[in-house]
Amino acid sequence: MALKDLLVYVDDSKANAARVDAAVRLAADNDAHLTGLYIAPDQSMTTVYTEAHIPSEILEAQRQAAVERAGEARKLFEAAAGKAGLSSEWRFVEGDFVRAVSLHARYTDLLIIGQSNPSDELSVTRGAVEQILLDVGRPVLVIPYIGAPQAMGERVLVAWNASREAMRAVHDAMPLLERAKAVRVLSINPQRGPSGEGEVPGADISHHLARHNVKAEAVHVEAEDIAVGEVLLSRAADQQADLIVMGAYGHSRYRELILGGATRSLLEAMTIPVLMSH
Q: Which terminus in the chain has less CB density within 10 A, N or C?
C-alpha cells in the first residue's frame, strides 16, 4: 500500500504548527494528497447536555468564534501545503470530536494526530486519542507535542511481539520502512515457540521485511522488571530512532485495559512520532 491520501487533524493548540509541518513533509515525501480537518463543537447539541437553556444568540456567538479560529488554522495549513506544492483540501466540521475524526480518517491511508499535552487546554485529550485508535480502523501517526524530527522515518524502531496488531502496524508502515535507512525489530520478553515468535525472536518478520527490500536488524531483550514502554523509549533513544512502529494492543475486553501498558506509556511519554495500528 502506498501512502497517497493523508489526513491531519488541525486545531488551536501550541503544537499544531509542528504537527502540520510534519504532515506536509510526509505528504511531500510520498507525493500524497493532504487533507486538513478542523472540528468545532456542535453548538446545537449544547443544550442537550446541560440543564440550563442557553440563549440562541450566545450559541451563535460561540459558533462564530469557532469559525474565526478555524479560519486562522486554515491559513496556516494552506500556507504550508501551498509552499510544498501539495495537492490539498480543507474540511471544517461541527460535531463530536472522536466520531468526526474516525469518520473522515476511515477514507484515508493514514491519520496524523497530536499527542495529548496536559499543559495545553486546547490539545486533544489522551482519552480521545486512545478512543480514535480503537475506532478508526486505519493507521494513526501520533506526533509529539514537542514536534517531529526533520528526518522522520529514516531510523525506525519496530516494536514486535508477533501479535495481529503488531503485524498490521508493520504492514501499514511498509511504505515508510521501505524508504528507511535503518530498521530495527525489537522483541521485549519474547515468547518462544510455534505459538510465539519461534526459536529466534524477530527472525520471521525480518525475513518478511527483507522480501520487501527492507533490511531489518532483529534484536530481543529480557526486561522482566522494567515496563515495556520504558524499554521501547530507552532503546529508541539509544538507536537515535526518529519513528516507532507498534501495534496498539491489549488482552482485556474492558476499554480501560484494552490498549495495554506499552501503548499508554508511549502516548504519555513519547518524544518521537509513533505509528500505531489496532
A: N
In degrees, rounded to 5, the angle at the alpha carbon of residue 146 between the alpha carbons of residues 239 and 159 is: 35
Whether the model clears a pTM of 0.70, i.e. scores above it, the answer is yes
Q: Rg for the chain (alpha carbons), in Å?
A: 20
Helix (H) or strand (E) holding 161: none
Strand order in the sheet with 155-160: 88-94, 33-40, 5-9, 110-114, 140-143, 274-277, 243-247, 155-160, 182-188, 216-221
Burial degree of 107 (CB within 10 A; 0-12, 13-18, 19+) = exposed
C-alpha cell recorded at residue 261: 501498558
Helix (H) or strand (E) holding 236: helix 228-239
Query: In whole angstroms, what is the distance from residue 34 CA to residue 187 CA?
Result: 34
Best CA proximity match to 144, nearest among 133, 134, 152: 152
Whole-number Å distance between alpha carbons of 225 and 173: 30
Please report the pLDDT score of residue 250 as a whole number. 54
For the chain of 278 residues, list the mean pLDDT of each consecutive stretch of 10. Answer: 95 96 98 97 57 70 82 97 98 94 97 95 89 94 96 96 92 97 93 71 92 95 84 94 88 46 88 95
pLDDT at position 253? 40
Stated length of the chain: 278
Type of residue found at 137:
G
